[in-house]
Design goal:
- 54% of the residues lie in helices and 7% in strands.
- The protein is of the alpha+beta class.
- It has a single domain, classed as Cytochrome p450, CATH 1.10.630.
- A five-stranded mixed sheet has the order 1-2-7-4-3. Strands 5-6 form a two-stranded antiparallel sheet. Strands 8-9 form a two-stranded antiparallel ribbon.
- Helix 7 packs across helix 8 and helix 14 runs parallel beside helix 18.
- The radius of gyration is 27 Å and the shape is globular.
- 43% of the residues are buried.
- The protein binds protoporphyrin IX containing FE.
Length: 507
Amino acid sequence: MMMLEDLFQSYVSVALMVGLICILISFLSRSKDETREPPGPKPLPLLGNLLQMDLKRIDCSLVDLSKKYGSVFTVYLGSQKVVILAGNKTVKEALVNYAVEFGERYISPSSHDFSGEQRNGILFGNGESWKEMRRFAVSNLRDFGMGKKAAEDKIIEEIQYLIDVFERHEGQPFSNAKSINYAVSNIISSIVFGSRFEYSDEEFKLMVTRANENLQLAGSSSMQLFNMFPWIFRWARNRMRLKRNVAENRNQMKRLIGRLQETLNVEMCRGYVDSFLAHKQKLEDLKITDSHYNLDNLVSTAVSLFAAGTDTTGTTLRWVLLLMAKYPQIQDQVQAELSRVVGDRQVRAEDRKILPFADAVIHETQRFANIFPIALRHQTSTDVTFQGYFIRKGTPVFPLLTSVLWDESEWESPRTFNPAHFLDKDRKFVKRDAFMPFSAGRRACPGEGLAKMELFLFFTSLVQRFRFTPPPGVKEEDLDLTPAVAVTRMPSPHELCAISREGIQNE
Ligand code: HEM
């Protein structure tokens, strides 16, 4: 009896021991898995990986690091830990398949200067307020423009103003930066405010200039350092200027909204601002006081639509004209296609299908120019395990669009301007999976449709009317494609000639 009891006891002890070991192993292996963070270069105390970064082209430094550490890796910008997503497959998987987890906006110290304490609107908003503001803006962009004949007509009208400016230079070299930005800005202005501005309107000129200057200030090395070491660089001159510009643009937006409010007729909304004010009034009439429809949110959203809708499309248009001047044979082919297919008549949005070469040139410009190298910064909304790596809630995440648009496994000649990337063997337009200049997922650019229509109509109408060349005495190969230092990759200051094709054809 005694022996049986002993046997039973030792059996239970062994079983308990085995059970405990199993639990320990499973706990250890699970916790190891759950805390396996993305790899990355070893950071130095305080400096993090600063010494591995080219502050003027952080995206290129990150692309180099991705070659060693893979498509999901960690870097420390100062003491700030950041996860980088690289390559078409990884960026798409994160932003589309894990849209909620990777869908929050990260507010860096410099974006805090843009967004202010409010952190509302669209660009820098999060949570319910962002969702509502984005939904409302997208439905208004549709009602007042995007993809509609109304927007097409506005764009075509604006092109005439721009052509007039170009013609006034009579083929002499000039910088097209300001006039292109005014023209493009007028498209989003018509949608937001319900009317365009004269290019000579001082208030308008200041607003466009400040928005453009802000991108350059925010991309400067001192602002990158401010993001990493805010307590040291908080007094940097560029930061002070950026804050002043942001405050002035906000005040100006308040004045513009105030004027629209005085003449508001809720039955006849002129644009997005009127629609917002009408909706706000409706909610107030229903005694709903806790909605997101307040003046502060309206100002933030209008400022972000104005800024996001101006420099992006303007910068892309400046790139495509510069590329046409640099590669005259490609310009020849665009002009030959236009002459053959549409002749002298005004190009319309529906002509895109019958102008595959022009369409390919625009897509290739967006790919090659890569104007948003790191999109806008995201952060994780929750703890997430992605591709086997654990990323904690609230971690800043950078979708490295440079690594997608120049992905060596996706593009035949990633660093060359080559419209054939978007043409099949029969010279028909082909979509490419790694074409992602507007980013992807729930934070993807809501202005994509409008931007595409603007790029197509502005580009084809300008090239139909003018021949773009370098200034006399400058060879095509000497036109510099090095971008200026800014948040977006904009061309460095340059001059081109816009020579009327009527004159050329009559010669
Ligand atoms: C060629 C033109 C354009 C390009 C390449 C572009 C690209 C982008 C990119 C990369 C983002 C960041 C997406 C992300 O966070 O992952 C973005 C966001 C945004 N874009 Fe555009 N954009 C362009 C034109 C426009 C236009 C015309 C508008 C005006 C309607 C606009 C409005 C916005 C807004 C409001 C956001 C913030 C979205 C959010 O945070 O939810 N963009 N854009």
